[in-house]
Write a structure and sequence with these properties.
Elements lengths: L17 E5 L3 E5 L15 E7 L6 H4 L3 E2 L10 E2 L12 E12 L2 E4 L9 E7 L2 H4 L12
Antiparallel strand pairs: 1-2, 1-8, 2-7, 3-6, 3-8, 4-5, 6-7
Length: 143
Amino acid sequence: MKGMMPMNFEPFKIVPVGYIRKNGETFIEIRPEFMEAAEDLREGDWIKLILWFHGSDSPERRKTLKVHPNGDPENPLTGVFATRSPYRPNPIALYTVRIHRIEGNKLHIDRIDAMDGTPVADIKIFVERLDCPGLKRHEGHSL
């Protein structure tokens, strides 16, 4: 059963802090009990989103260890850790987006390919020196 893994492990629980919403715009709807955690976010901030691709979550899909990148069978089978495939042992998605507007519990962000209702597992502020360790600043240039 090459390319598949047995499912004999203890699961753990992730509580959504919000949900992706799409109605012409893309925004994160923060759950009321987590609003205090979002207090110091500002319009213009870059953030990292950790999402749970619930639409891609099934016992069979979690066993997938290799995929054809972009779903194209012309591409060679590739280990999922070297791809952006939603089919993986844990269907976690990671995005870097900008907050364009904040309205109450709504953080309006860049458009992303997540479905409406996708759970947001966590939000972290983007820190260039941590999130882009290979980039070097050159005097006179800003990144």
